[in-house]
């Protein structure tokens, strides 16, 4: 199989231009592409639209891109832990499109799977339903929602191989596999990169067909938002 | 009046053996502490875990294993991991039997508001809209009144809605109430020491009182 | 977690009545629930509607249920290797609903995932489109297709645990995981049944939430339809 | 006139490095034998395998590992396994670059018929309708004429359609042809020893002949 390895994050994100649409995996700070976020920070681009369940915190994750004013719009389900985000939003510098988490996940999944639209019950009777087609099936109301696709999707996996196959760990999986499939170009950073053939085909979470570039990341911080321990 | 822990404890009595349950942030998370040991239930976390275990000890902490409230967790025996689309497929598909979540307001026809206050910073609905639109059984854990003393059980929600006609039962610091299919809060139980009259005063929506209202038993 | 183990196939299918809707995993003869098919054959039921990609062969798989006239209707994508099937179809004893394989898979997936309808491009301009709503998205036409659900889904896995978690092997996975989620009651037969906690949570293909009954099957024949070897 | 193997061999020249390819049953399956060793491509089987390897030796045979034609196969290095919904998600989502399949008829606007003959037992479309509705590049491998000598390249398909306006290129025993976006079969190459005049006679649909038509090179 063709070798999809690139040298590092800088090479992986080199051609990401201003004003494009990015998807970034992760839930909270878990499973976020730390290396690619750092590499994006070094680039002189702005006007990004980012699809990500959350928006990071002030000094980590997508919060860093916000602080550098690289982001025009966030498409997320929950953005609550970020003061700079709040400031930019209230000042009108930043747009935000808030989407129910399951609808966000399904829209991304639909983007990767070639389903342009689908019906879902989430948001019926709420402001999320405004302007959307609704329809009854078996006595229950549903909203028509459309697919989400991106120019680039950037995901973080635990293990990967040179053919682009990915295995995630724990709840760091979250949006990563569905976003991998929904980006025209998918960039995957992994903690451990092995040769094609070393991963069990039966255990692959994301088949390599979805991944265009892969590299082994360095220095993962894996910051914890809510360190909670048993007493 | 019940403490938050007592609300959680009372809700835990609603849990049935073999159920798959999604617990929201806040009081609902506390419910896990009161589920009797003889019941085998599975807690779902919408970020991709079935079978949430106890919080980790210091040396068990894994940053790659968190719940939907972003707290570090462990995995129970027999748990499984999956992506966000699969997770909400589970929820929407009705496979999760019971959802317990907090609310700012509930209306007498079962509408719930819990995601947005006009004029305040909007943080987003997270998975709440999917959960309330999907689960067959939704129990709300909340304070009966706001800090300023106003009823949160209303004829109609005043805040933006999270979901319509979805709440089945409410456990507050004052009472256990069910939503009548015809509309109205059916008073089922009183908190210890709380009178029906007090609950009446604190409930702005239609309150249905049938027969003697027993005190809660824990 | 609650123990979902039943003794054997006979106990697992005991309450399956006449005239109900069944889903059965498998592609060709690979990954079919051999034990449950045998147990169904012992039952005195008829009028079944079976959703399965194929219809088995004359003397194996679903073909055995057809031969015993237990099946009223097949919902499949390809039914070509079965003479008895052909006879019953031509004589009007059997109904068949032929569905493009990807549409069949997505309808089953939608049934499990609470999506009542979705748009797909397969079948546009063909007789499959007759009577269906069509709509253009981004310049391409799509058909509206609805979810498929069943009273019982019967699947076959490689390994399973007492909590109902399943792991499949090779291409025996096929329709099994999506059907597991689309049945009101899912019965899983597995080659190896272990205690909850023995399978790696990260490697589960079908989370136990979808499975109501599980047992360890016996005497798997795993018949091969097209034994093809390298020269 | 080309043999089936030669048709496969000619089609193999269309394959580009790094492509993900779905090969249908029949002649398309043979294409795998002619893909140059210096090209790294991945073959997809819609029953849930990326990275089809060679047919197994006797002792490698695994009944749990078949292709969409139900033949026993092996896995290539770096392959992956998945369920049928994921597999067709891959196909519909445009991730498979090239689909090669057989046909009973192709029309001059790129419609294809390959699943049903009225009056004969209908076996079903399998994955063909999904494949032709999804792939950006679809190449048809077929005989130019039926056994009774009638052209299978038609103004309009006479048989029930599998997909509309989807075929990009056709390789027959007589010629290589492309579908013109405006309609018509653009003759690109002749089989060795076959004249343009012969191809003209065997093509019922509009044939577009521009300049010299070269013979195929293998």
From TrEMBL, chains A, C:
Highest taxon of source: Bacteria
Record's keyword terms, sorted: Transferase
Pfam families: CoA_trans (PF01144)
Molecular function, one GO term: CoA-transferase activity
Stored SUPFAM superfamilies: NagB/RpiA/CoA transferase-like
InterPro entries hit by this protein: 3-oxoacid_CoA-transf_A, CoA_trans_fam_I, NagB/RpiA_transferase-like
NCBIfam families membership: pcaI_scoA_fam
Protein name per its UniProtKB record: 3-oxoacid CoA-transferase subunit A
TrEMBL record, chains B, D:
SUPFAM superfamilies, A to Z: NagB/RpiA/CoA transferase-like (SSF100950)
InterPro entries for the chain: 3-oxoacid_CoA-transf_B, CoA_trans_fam_I, CoA_transf_AS, NagB/RpiA_transferase-like
The name this protein goes by in its record: 3-oxoacid CoA-transferase subunit B
Keywords: Transferase
Family of the protein in this entry: Belongs to the 3-oxoacid CoA-transferase subunit B family.
NCBIfam families the UniProt entry points to: pcaJ_scoB_fam
One function term, GO molecular function aspect: CoA-transferase activity
